[in-house]
Structure formats: C-alpha cells, structure tokens
Design brief:
- The protein has about 110 residues and is an all-alpha fold.
- The protein has two domains: about 70 residues; about 40 residues.
- About 90% of the residues lie in helices and about 0% in strands.
C-alpha cells in the first residue's frame, strides 16, 4: 500500500500541531501550578508582616496607656468610662493634648 506525498506532508503537519498543542498545555499547567505556589507563599508572608505590624501597634498603644495611667486625672476618667468607644475618644483627646504640649515646648 502506497501513500502519496500529500498524505505524508499532511500527517507531518498534524503531528507537529499535536505536539505543539501538547507542549503548550503542559507548559500552561506547570505555569499555573508555579503561580499558585508563588501566590500562596507571598500571601503567607504578607499576612505575617501585617500581623506583626498590628501586634506592634497594639503593644505601642498599650505602653502609651500604661504611661498615661500614672496621671490621676486619666485614671479617674478611665474608671468612669465603661464604653470602649469613649475610651478610644479619650485616648485620642489625650494624644492631641500631648501634641499641643510638645508643640508649645518647641
């Protein structure tokens, strides 16, 4: 059985197309896995960094509140306040007062 030249050329082109498509699909799958792994690692890193910043900010605020708690007026105000929003507002007001006092000393 003889195959003509046209059939051989068509078979060759089809083989090249199938191999190229297979290589493209394999490359796409590998790239997707790599991207997912990279995003996962970066997400964990970013979450850890944000957690560290939040913890640092919380401890800094606690330290400042501890420093302010030596003042009897501040202790009295905190003892009277039961609402957390009021505590935050009081803290902001004290912070503003400290900034004004520091500005006056300069």
């Amino acid at each position: 059985m003889r195959t003509n030249i046209r059939t051989k050329i068509l078979g060759g082109f089809l083989l090249v197309i199938v191999l190229t498509a297979a290589l493209a699909l394999y490359s796409g799958a590998i790239s997707e896995r790599s991207l997912v792994a990279s995003v996962g690692r970066n997400s964990v890193f970013l979450a850890e960094e944000i957690s560290k910043r939040i913890n640092h900010d919380i401890y800094a605020r606690i330290k400042e509140l501890q420093n302010l708690s030596v003042y009897s007026h501040f202790q009295k105000t905190l003892a009277e306040i039961r609402d957390f929003k009021k505590i935050v507002m009081c803290y902001q007001q004290v912070t503003r007062c400290k900034i004004v006092i520091l500005a006056l000393h300069i």
